[in-house]
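Record type: monomer structure entry
Structure origin: computed from sequence
Chain ID: A
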Amino acid sequence: MAKDVDLSSKEWRDLVFEGKNKEYGAYTLRAASQKRHNRAMIAVIIILAVVAALAFLVNTVMEKIAEQRPTDEIEQEMAMLGDAEAPEDEPEEEQQRVEEQKPEALPEEILNTVKSSEIKITADEEVTEEIKSQDDLKNDDRAIGQTNFDQGTDDLNVVREHKEEVIVEEKKPEPVKEEVFTAVEQMPTFPGGDAALMQYLSSHIKYPAAAAENGIQGRVTVQFVVTKTGAIGEVKVVRSKDPDLDKEAVRVVKSLPKFNPGRMNGQAVAVWYTLPVNFKLATN
């Protein structure tokens, strides 16, 4: 194809539609395509020009508004913003007031005392303190000490010793873990025997719907603790068949009534008990 061929020219259009039905509509669309393209291009150019003119107009208006605002007003706003961002320093007087309001430690109660007189030979000129007689000391209710002190309390019960009190917390004895046996002289038994146990399982098992739909059946082996009171303790699956079957087996075992507990040397003890739980689908 030559480079100078105009695909929108009438000659090229007639050549393409030569021998074809020109009344169908494609010929008319092809003939008007050049006008549509020109109109679209003109519309795009006009829209871009309008947007550019609006942007220029808005920018010009904003610059004029900024020029008309007084400089003092702008400086005041900047100063207000700076004051709002800067944290206010607490006055020293408030800090001192807070320190003064701190509660003071209560002083220890001090016992009122009276100085006891010591017998010592001294010249009269050297005596500077009043010597109390034994009668005076007997009649004084205060305690005997090294100095005279009359600004405390006379009650010995409120005098606190000036030493650190050591509080010793009593340790509670840890509970003794009950020993669980695996074999004893007399194993635990279900009331009514094994037949009653199997009857209980068959009447209380609810076959899981998912396992039934998938045709899953078989045996799940469960181990559980029969405590010394006969109650059911820890339960665990030792041989799994299917998660749904395992869960149902554990549920039924936990619902078992009390056993007759196992015994060792005549005493009731906790014993591990192994129980197979069979799951079997009914056949038509």
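Annotation 1: The mean pLDDT is 76.
Annotation 2: The first helix runs from residue 10 to 16.
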